[in-house]
Write a structure and sequence with these properties.
The complex is a heterodimer of chains A (430) and B (602). Chain A has 430 residues and is an alpha/beta fold. Chain A is built from 14 helices and 12 strands. Chain A has a 7-stranded mixed beta sheet with strand order 9-8-7-6-10-11-12. In chain A, helix 7 links the parallel strand 6 and strand 7. In chain B, 27% of the residues lie in helices and 25% in strands. In chain B, strands 19, 20, 21, 22, 23, 24, 25, 26 and 27 form a 9-stranded mixed beta sheet that branches. In chain B, strands 2-18-17-9-10-11 form a 6-stranded mixed beta sheet. In chain B, strands 1-3-6-4-5 form a 5-stranded mixed beta sheet. In chain B, strand 14 and strand 15 form a beta hairpin. Chain B is globular and about 75 Å long. In chain B, 53% of the residues are buried. Classes of the chains: A alpha/beta (430), B alpha+beta (602). The interface between A and B is medium-sized, with 21 and 18 residues.
């Protein structure tokens, strides 16, 4: 979706962010060393007999960055450009994310180098089952709990759960989250990340004295996070004028714009399951078709990058319109450090990813709790708790930023890293 | 004051997560209107914040309970997003509507605020309807919609939140209950235009073991339609009950008196009668063992207890007196052995009754502030640990005093052409109708009042559908919840009646329905209300009704259509009323041939 940038390395970004906070906190050398790299990394191969009878070997990873505060938690990504460094970075961000919203979990991430667009359902099932067989001794409800992520879904989680239970001879719904409701999934899970982002955005607007109904947003991405963020944002009165998405047929991204506000329902009706909007039908519905990067140039108050990392970079941060006052990061690591400095210099209020998109992991945690209790909560209950958790986290971060005159991202990191460092210290690790 | 007009939205701050740590008493969640109760409370809150008002009420302190209003926009979103609008016009039974609402999801944008509220509050909560039409001056919906209280005392906040959300959904569902729709038709309102706000209030009171309740609940009105003896209508009237106000608003036994004459007891025939007729049970929030799970029941978390239990809680010390059977006397207080009488004697008679003085001042201040006659619902509580006794203003609504030019003299009451004359009537004006629904005296049985209520409801439904206003005549207190005290109809079951007659037989006497939701509807909907105590001077000529054309007949109730309409008149200035023929010659029996014809039919 974004321009390729070979210099970009997620893990280096994550480490540089951590280093800055470690300096701010004056962390001891041992603590610093422990936290700037993962505790455990697993790299393995998954051989799969393909539909045509050939055998293909897929490289896969699981990285457990830190579990001092509780079992590790993190998604599994299927992506052709997956790298171990990307997974490391995402695992580290998961640690901070769980800590900033104060849920008793550590951070992990997994990935398989594959493109599900080019795999049949059977082949995807075999990848899932193979992934579990390779790592089964090192994951589980009390060790490490996977979840869906980029290009993985509830179906993939169901195959993985089934394999885990078959191998261990148990019923363990708490092994994995993002399950279908019928198999112990949580109400509100699909809305959680997008809604969570808007809960923090709502509080940010309140702090800035802005009313949602007076604001306009532009969104990068039209996947699950983006769609539910748009849904709740419009329900509280806001307007979204542009969304960008990946076009699988053209192998590029486009931005679709409608002055006066997009209609979420009509775009959903012409989108594929991965969030790709049908180009021709969008134009028929009166949308302007712009370049993929045009989402960042819009004359709006709020930018919501809700697709992949590396979306706001040094080369495009200057294109952000003068009217923009808030960047709410729905994706993981969408802003490079250089671009982040530019945002900071411009006085743009940033809702950092580890806070703004923590709704997903928070709801995953709720699902884990329900599964381990073999009980369920009503949707009102899940979303009510989610709002309280997200709002409390925002207020804590904002309060620290205000008191210590910190950038919001730094304040979020300070809170998260402090909590994890204290847990490591309390356990006697450092 | 600019915002005095009924229904006008008042500006109150939006809920913030530190509301519970602030001194603010009122907050709102969501967009839209606050509804009748919400608007009334917002106006009174600003009045009660004035130091000069509090000085007038000393030693009492008056304030509204801490309140959050879920504005009507939340209801709109809830109904729209969950596809519930169909129930606005459907004929689905109430449980079907209630279950559909329970299964729906509240708008996510308000859930966090509600959750934060529940996380911070640990006293029982009252979740009340506050519709746009309810409590408005011209068309009250008082008592039509649900109110639910939750103990809110579970250790687990998840549990408290669940119970609370169920209560909100129950109140929402009651907007589309059959009773509400029937009521809407009876006042010619279009239900789809109805919008519901919800008032969430901390319940005023104290915990006494497994019960939570205020010492005294009161309904205080600035105008007394039943003023008698030395009391004057403009001095107002107060009804008191121990425990939650449900006793009063449901028309149960309570203590009704003039606040200007707090020592004058209600007109009971004897002290033995007083003992028998005064309040003997009270409502409280159940803080003890969890009840049977029933989210569709308004009273799920309420419990009715006896006076003995209140005495055990030591709350009757300044509320009750003691009956001495040997002397047939009532002694002030509970210092001696004997049956207790809840006459609020110590509170009203000792020390110049500062309680009554404070109530009068409060009602007077509210009436001046809103520039209209008002009705206040209060919950009053005091304890050794609380610095000032509290008058919690739970609701404020305007009440109607009709104007008109009807005049009835004493002689008019005994006019030979009258069907009935009444020296105690409410309202002002007249109604002409040929339709009369009456409970037949020969078949009336106090043991069958519940069935009679159903029969009346069926006839009412037919008349409402045909758009025919009618005169209703029956025995005992209409709208009571006590089936032994009268006919226990809900308002919507008689909503088509434009004139109501309450007949007390020598064997079946009942105090008027003062203070209840039913009575509020009677007065505010300008229904003419006549109380007849059958005696030498007041009697009903049943034979004239029996000779009308019978339209429908049930076991106990008859609907007749008279050849010539009758005129129901009430003179609100002297409280007299009568029912007489518009044209005496047109009445059956007044003309020889008609009488013969009628007799011939027999």
């Amino acid at each position: 979706m974004t321009k390729s940038n070979k210099a970009y390395n997620s893990f280096e970004v994550a480490q540089s962010q951590f280093d800055r906070v470690a300096d701010l906190l004056d962390l001891k050398a041992a603590t610093r060393e422990l936290l700037r790299s993962p505790l455990r990394e697993y790299s393995f191969a998954i051989p799969v007999r393909m539909d045509d009878g050939s055998v293909q070997v897929f490289r896969a990873f699981r990285v457990q960055h830190n579990d001092a505060r509780g079992p590790s938690k993190g998604g599994i990504r299927f992506h052709p450009l997956e790298t171990q460094d990307t997974v490391r970075a995402l695992a580290m961000w998961m640690t901070w994310k769980c800590a900033v919203v104060d849920i008793p979990l550590g951070g992990a991430k997994g990935g398989v180098i594959c493109d599900p667009h080019h795999l049949s359902a059977r082949e995807q099932e075999l990848v899932c089952r193979g992934w579990v067989r390779q790592i089964v001794k090192n994951v589980g409800p009390t060790i490490d709990v996977p979840a869906p992520d980029v290009m993985t879904s509830a179906q993939h989680m169901t195959w993985m759960l089934d394999e885990f239970e078959a191998v261990t001879g148990s019923r363990a719904p708490g092994f994995i989250t993002g399950k279908p409701i019928s198999l112990g999934g949580s109400q509100g899970r699909k809305e959680a990340t997008g809604y969570g982002l808007v809960f923090t955005l709502r509080e940010a607007l309140r702090e800035m004295g802005l009313r949602p109904e007076d604001t306009v947003a532009s969104v990068q991405g039209f996947g699950n996070v983006a769609q539910y963020a748009i849904e709740l944002f419009t329900q509280i009165g806001g307007r979204v004028e542009a969304v960008s998405c990946w076009d699988q047929a053209d192998s590029t991204s486009y931005t679709y714009r409608k002055k006066g506000g997009i209609d979420l329902a009509e775009l959903r009706a012409i989108a594929d399951p991965f969030g790709g909007i049908h180009s021709g039908r969008a134009i028929e519905l009166g949308y302007e078709k712009l370049s993929g990067d045009a989402w960042i140039e819009q004359d709006v108050d709020i930018l919501i990058p809700a697709a992949l990392e590396n979306a706001i970079r040094a080369d495009n941060v200057g294109q952000i319109g003068k009217r923009v006052r808030i960047v709410a990061e729905g994706a993981n690591g969408p802003t490079t450090p250089e671009a982040d400095s530019a945002l900071k210099d411009r006085g743009i209020f940033v809702l950092p990813d580890l806070l703004a998109n923590a709704g997903g992991v928070t709801c995953s945690y709720f699902e884990q709790v329900q599964s381990n209790m073999n009980y369920y909560w009503a949707k009102d209950e899940v979303l009510g708790k989610l709002d309280v958790k997200m709002t409390s986290a925002f207020l804590a971060v904002h309060e620290l930023a205000r008191k210590q005159k910190l950038y919001m991202r730094d304040a979020a990191y300070v809170i998260a890293v402090t909590r994890v460092a204290e847990a490591c210290h309390d356990r006697g690790w450092v | 004051m600019a915002d005095n007009e009924p229904g006008r939205a008042c500006s109150i701050p939006y809920f913030s997560r530190d509301f519970l740590r602030s001194s603010a008493r009122l907050s709102r969640i969501g967009e839209g209107a606050l509804g009748g109760k919400g608007t009334g409370l917002a106006r009174i809150d600003s009045l009660l914040s004035r130091p000069d008002i509090q000085e007038r009420l000393a030693p009492y302190e008056a304030r509204i309970p801490r309140t959050v209003v879920l504005a009507t926009g939340v209801f709109d979103s809830f109904v729209e997003r969950n596809g519930l609008a169909q129930f606005a016009t459907s004929a689905d039974p109430d449980p079907v509507v209630a279950r559909a609402f329970q299964n729906a999801v509240l708008p996510p944008e308000v859930l966090g605020d509600l959750r934060a509220l529940i996380d911070g509050v640990r006293v029982p909560l009252a979740v009340r309807s506050s519709s746009l039409l309810e409590d408005s001056l011209s068309r009250p919906f008082a008592g039509v919609y649900a109110t639910k209280m939750t103990p809110n005392n579970q250790a687990d906040p998840d549990e408290r939140f669940r119970k609370f959300v169920e209560a909100v959904k129950l109140v929402y569902a009651s907007t589309y209950y059959l009773g509400a729709k029937a009521y809407g038709r009876s006042v010619a309102r279009s239900l789809p235009s109805e919008k519901m706000a919800v008032v969430i209030q901390e319940v005023v009171g104290s915990r006494h073991g497994p019960r939570f309740y205020p010492r005294v609940s009161a309904v205080a009105r600035s105008h007394d339609f039943y003023a008698a003896g030395a009391a004057r209508p403009e001095e107002g009237v107060v009804s008191l009950a121990l425990g939650l106000g449900k006793t009063i608003v449901d028309g149960g036994a309570c203590w009704t008196y003039s606040p200007a004459h707090p020592r004058v007891p209600p007109p009971y025939g004897s002290n033995r009668d007083l003992l028998r007729m005064s309040q003997s049970r009270f409502w409280a929030v159940n803080m003890g063992s969890p009840p049977v799970y029933d989210p569709l029941a308004e009273e799920e978390y309420l419990v009715q207890s006896s006076l003995q239990e209140a005495e055990y809680d030591r709350v009757t010390d300044d509320l009750a007196s003691t009956y001495d059977a040997s002397s047939d006397r009532i002694y002030l207080g509970v210092g001696r052995e004997g049956p207790r009488v809840l006459d609020f004697g110590p509170l009203l008679r000792l020390g110049g009754s500062p309680f009554s003085t404070a109530l009068r001042e409060l009602v007077s201040a509210c009436r001046e502030y809103v520039d209209a006659q008002v009705e206040l619902e209060l919950a009053c509580d005091w304890s050794d640990s609380r610095s000032a006794p509290l008058l919690g203003v739970v609701q404020v609504r305007p009440m109607l005093v009709a104007d008109g030019d009807t005049s009835i003299s004493v002689d008019d009451l005994t006019d030979s052409t009258n069907i009935l004359g009444a020296s105690h009537a409410v309202g002002h004006g007249f109604l002409e109708t040929a339709d009369v629904v009456y409970v037949r005296p020969d078949t009336f049985d106090p043991r069958e009042t519940v069935q009679i209520a159903e029969e009346v409801a069926g006839l009412n439904r037919d008349l409402v559908e045909k758009g025919r206003p009618y005169l209703l005549i029956g025995f005992g207190r209409w709208g009571t919840t006590d089936p032994w005290g009268g006919i226990p109809v809900r308002w919507e079951q008689v909503g088509g009646a434009r004139a109501i007659v309450e007949v007390s037989l020598p064997s079946f006497r009942a105090a008027p329905s003062q203070g209840s939701h039913f009575f509020h509807n009677v007065t505010s909907l300008q229904v003419l209300y006549l109380g007849v105590v059958e005696s030498e001077s007041e009697r009903i000529d049943w034979s004239l009704l029996e000779r009308g054309k019978e339209v429908a007949r049930t076991d106990h109730v008859t609907h007749v259509r008279l050849d010539s309409p009758v005129r129901v008149e009430v003179d609100g200035r002297n409280g007299r009323g009568r029912v007489c023929p518009v044209d005496p010659r047109g009445l059956p029996g007044a003309d020889g041939s008609r009488t013969e014809s009628a007799d011939g039919n027999d």
